[in-house]
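Reply to dn_fold:

You asked what the input looked like. This is it:
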Amino acid sequence: GILQNDRDTSTQQFPGQPANFTNLSNNKGFAAGYTAVLSSTLTNRFVYGFTRQGFENSSAAASQPFVSFRTIDDLFGTGRSFRRISPVHNFVDDVNWVKGNHSWQFGLNERFITNSSVNFANSFARAVTNKAWLASARPLRPVGATSAGDHAMAALLGLVTQGTANYNYDHTGKSLPVGAPIVRDFAASEHEYYAQDTWRVKPNLTLTMGLRYSLYSPPYEKSGNQVRPSISLGDWFQLRGRNAAAGIPSNAAPRITFDLAGPANGKPGFYDWDKNNFAPRFAFAYSPDWKTGFISKLTGGAGNTVIRGGYAIVYDRIGASLATTFDRTNAFGLGTQLTNPSGILTANNTPRFTGLNTIPSSILLPNPGTGFPATPGADFAITAAIDDTVRTPYSEQMDFSIQRQLPHNFTIEAAYVGRLGKHILVNNDLAMPVNLVDKQSGMDYFTAANLLLNYHNVGSVPKIPYWENIFPGLATSTLSATQGAWNVFSPEAGFGPDYTTALQRVDQLCIPACSKFGPYAFFNDQYSNLNAWSSIMPTWYHAGQFLVRKRFSAGTQFDLNYTWSKSEDWASVVERNGLFTGSVWNAWNPWLRKAVSDYDVTHNLNFNGVAELPIGKGRWLGKDMPGWGNAILGGWQLSGIWRWTSGLPTYIGNGFQFPTNWEFTGAASAISSVPGVQTSRLPAGPNLFADPAAAFAAFSTTRPGFVGNRNILRGDGFFSIDMGLAKSWQMPYNEKHQLQFRWEVFNLTNSTRFDVNTASGDMDNPNSFGRYTSTLTQPRVMQFGLRYQF
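and this is what came back:
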């Protein structure tokens, strides 16, 4: 399936919600089952469960085309009406059989999922004043201005640069009228079977071994309103990469064509079945029973120490989530979205804004017609898809712990917990410009571009074989081909640091000349970005956990726990985060984006406890207190939660510059030692840095082939103390009646910690660099309660 989007660095292009836009949800479910005792050692338990999730957005305003102004909130709501209903039928059966020292378990779990939707999101055309669609935005800037105000200038001048036409059909080829909803009825099934043996080897040693098999169907559209590329998108991507390494241009790759797919059409779905999902599991629990010697003192004797460990493979269930993601599928031939190519219009010939609901016809591409197979034209589209070579993601989970009981109801525990993800889903640009190799010199594009950028004036640029061999047409009577390339790519004279736009000039537009292979030697003419969920990402999580616990006794109980951990990945996203989020930025080298996860917290310390104050009749203080005094001073209980963490990571954005990928800007690059992060109260407001100017100077825009430095900064950690004071009175006329008073304080110290994810940090905004706009913590809040129980 294919989805359409715009070249954008934000996750929400149309912010805000109109007053007459309503959100409704209707969720329900029930379960029924039985347990059959077949013998004293054999039981069977069966459960049937049903859940139904319903969600609806209703908008009366968004029933016509809209022109939006990029980076500016819309005056009126542009949200489209949408409804989704997802019933799930779940059948679970478990058999338990005890034989000697073995406890066997067998079972199955069958789930049948439907995802029905009615969606108006792509029932109308749309347009936007998008400066990125211009051949060049520089004429928009006043003298001395930066690119930060380009979008505002495009809106001010009314430059309607980008238009998207929507043409919808059913699987028979019948055209749907403009404004008609897109109706889809997706389904998926999930089948799981397991066997497990818990073997009590000795009274103090238990082994658990099991195997689980999972089989998950690809999601499919029940009525046949589904298409699939005629060539595997994953194989097509790999072919483009192999060709480029061999010096074969991108335009040699086959064109992508779509045909009907899914069981209703007698064909495969979005991707093929993955039938190799075997998940072994192993665990042990051992309680040493040494009775003499030093080691017995260390373990505390029999029953006071437990050593546990385990290993398991766990598979993710992705079919239902991908069905949800792609229930708005706009696959060419069913829901054809056509956006006018970028880089063609200029500030002089762009049509002007004439009304919020009037889209200039000149930027709307015509209806290409219906019928299958359907082949997109050279539209240079920005779209999204599913990589059909996707495999079921899974994780290897490991843990090892030692727990020791101590006198006076204390327990201590130390544990290692690890999780290694394999084939995790991540967004990957399958149509990214190739890193084309020059067979004569053996040099690739990224290397040649970076060599070119080492020079700061055209006269100092020597001949670089790559540019001379691949782009001979850039040479003039006074310039070598390399010097001609420098005039296109350099920040001083060309389009740098927006290096993908520079590449587009010479590869798509042939300005001033194309390569020797003709247009689209690097880009693909059908897609400038084909963002797909691909199961290619590994993830890593390792943690040491330490716990001190006191069970309730002598009027007190508490937990003190500390976790020291590290989580790493390429992108911290899941399917519900949506398309065009968390891409790897460089599809040819996704490992460049490996860093600590967006949610990584190195240190996490937590204390929670309850204590009865030792005041009152029979207590340490006031044990002979009279009844009236005990009613006032006795029986108070103090509770609290104290939490401290180290800071979340972040990075500096590259600004509205696209060094490596046509759709994603990536991170800026650190060029010197980054000043230490220190939240400071500066005249302009709280800031991530003590010296924002020095911090800004430590970064530079990123070069071609690179993705910058992800998550190299840490913001404030979280800190909060919540406390509660409570007392209860039994009523003298009935001991079953009770009156309770509570005084609770949240963020007792009124501490402020700032949210690093809201710090302004990109290369386009030096004046607000590092400035915070939101906090992690909330101001101190007190609440009082009086409750009567009977």
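The chain has a mean pLDDT of 89.
Hope that clears it up.
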